[in-house]
């Protein structure tokens, strides 16, 4: 049951993330207009921030674009047919939980495979950077992680408070 619940929550988020990530070219803040360089929510697509703030040479940019193009050709995003199949299972006269779980498991496994491949590509991109660029990247990553930890710590007490309020009001 936990697998199915996790898949129901994770798969739509992954679909959105990979749709956006797959459509994006490798870009850095030094070659984006200011309106596009505005900070986005770090929980939306964390890996799209990987190279933000790094000044790349034209050769590095071209190599990264080539890696992304090659990866996009080799691996498609989630299939519309997969989404349609899930929808058909949901609207069926008799809900078949086993079939729905099996479809979710199949989609989730394909998503894991895609994520591993994208991590491999990001690693290749990282290896294209100079040591100085890698240091900047490490610093920026640490800053993002610190900010995410701070945001998480701010959100936890409020959600605990809301849960205790609803519990005490229902008694």
What does this structure look like?
- With 171 residues, the chain is mainly alpha-helical.
- It is built from five helices and no strands.
- Helix 1 (2-23) crosses helix 4.
- Mean pLDDT is 73; it is low at 14-46.
The count of helical stretches stands at 5
Beta fraction of the residues? under 5%
Structure classification: mainly alpha
User: Helix fraction?
Assistant: over 70%
Q: Could you give the order of the helices and strands?
A: HHHHH
Number of strands: 0
Please tell me how large the radius of gyration is: 20 Å
Low-confidence stretches: 14-46
Give the overall pLDDT as a whole number. Answer: 73
Tell me, briefly, the overall form: flat
State the separation between the terminal residues, measured CA to CA.
29 Å
Q: Tell me the major beta sheet.
A: none
């Amino acid at each position: 049951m936990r697998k199915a619940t996790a898949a129901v929550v994770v798969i739509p988020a992954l679909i959105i993330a990979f749709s956006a990530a797959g459509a994006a070219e490798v870009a850095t803040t030094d070659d984006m207009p200011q309106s596009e360089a505005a900070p986005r929510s770090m929980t939306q697509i964390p890996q799209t921030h990987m190279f933000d703030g790094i000044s790349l040479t034209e050769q590095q940019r071209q190599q990264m674009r080539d890696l992304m193009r090659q990866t996009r050709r080799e691996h498609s995003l989630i299939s519309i047919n997969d989404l349609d199949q899930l929808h058909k299972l949901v609207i069926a006269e008799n809900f078949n939980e086993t079939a729905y779980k099996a479809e979710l498991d199949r989609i989730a496994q394909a998503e894991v495979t895609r994520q591993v491949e994208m991590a491999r590509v990001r690693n290749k991109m990282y290896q294209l950077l100079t040591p100085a660029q890698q240091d900047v990247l490490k610093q920026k990553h640490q800053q993002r992680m610190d900010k995410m930890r701070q945001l998480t710590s701010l959100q936890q007490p409020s959600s605990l408070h809301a849960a205790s309020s609803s519990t005490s009001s229902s008694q």
